[in-house]
Amino acid sequence: MQRFIQIQQCYGLSFYMHYLAHWPEYFQVAESPSGEIMGYIMGKAEGHGENWHGHVTALTVSPDYRRLGLAAMLMKFLEEVSEKKQAYFVDLFVRVSNKVAIKMYQQLGYIVYRTVLEYYNGDPDEDAYDMRKALSKDVKKKSVIPLTHPVRPEEVE
Q1: Which of 92, 6, 85, 3 is nearest to 42 (CA)?
Q2: Per-residue b/e over 106-144, b at no fewer than 16 CB within 10 Å?
Q3: Measured between alpha carbons, how far is 119 from 127 in angstroms, rounded to an integer?
Q4: pLDDT tens-digit series, residues 61-107
Q5: Strands, E, within 2-134: which ranges?
Q6: Which helix (DSSP H) or strand (DSSP E) does residue 14 occupy?
Q7: Virtual CA dihedral for 128, 129, 130, 133, nearest 10 degrees?
Q8: Domains assigned to the chain
């Protein structure tokens, strides 16, 4: 549980409050019957036209509650909110080295859309995958046609 609490502190309170004020429908907390926080997801809607999408900002599950399908349930929640908002797709960024998360997202139907070089604070060893899943509004699945070349963080819309 201590590690979970440390993860929570990655973002400052003002960051959470900004998201909560602007996109409250994109917040979901999973709580155990005893009141313990098992995990949460937060996101937002952004973009214009065919780039209108839901974005997963943070998905965290306490180590005590991993491998129970909780992350998949939270992702489904965010996808359903995005569907209601008529989004074309949902996207997220994940460290290239996070093989467990990448595999889980792939099992949920996400594809690697592109690689974002040095995404994590300009660290040359910390690239990210921009992963996407098309929603029903994207009938032709144009939003998930992978790019053939990596991009830099400043090129990400």
Answers
A1: 92
A2: eeeebbbbbbbbebeeeeeeebbbbbbbbbebbeeeebb
A3: 5
A4: 999 999 999 999 999 999 999 999 999 999 999 999 999 999 999 99
A5: 28-31, 37-46, 53-61, 89-95, 111-116, 128-134
A6: helix 13-22
A7: -150
A8: 13-155 (3.40.630.30)
Provide the residue type at 16 as one letter. Y
Share of the chain above pLDDT 90, in %: 81
Give the Cα separation of 32 and 92 in Å (integer).
26
Mean pLDDT of the chain: 91
Which long-range contacts link 19-24 to residues 24+ away (Cβ below 8 Å)? 19/43, 19/44, 19/57
Three-state SS at 83: helix
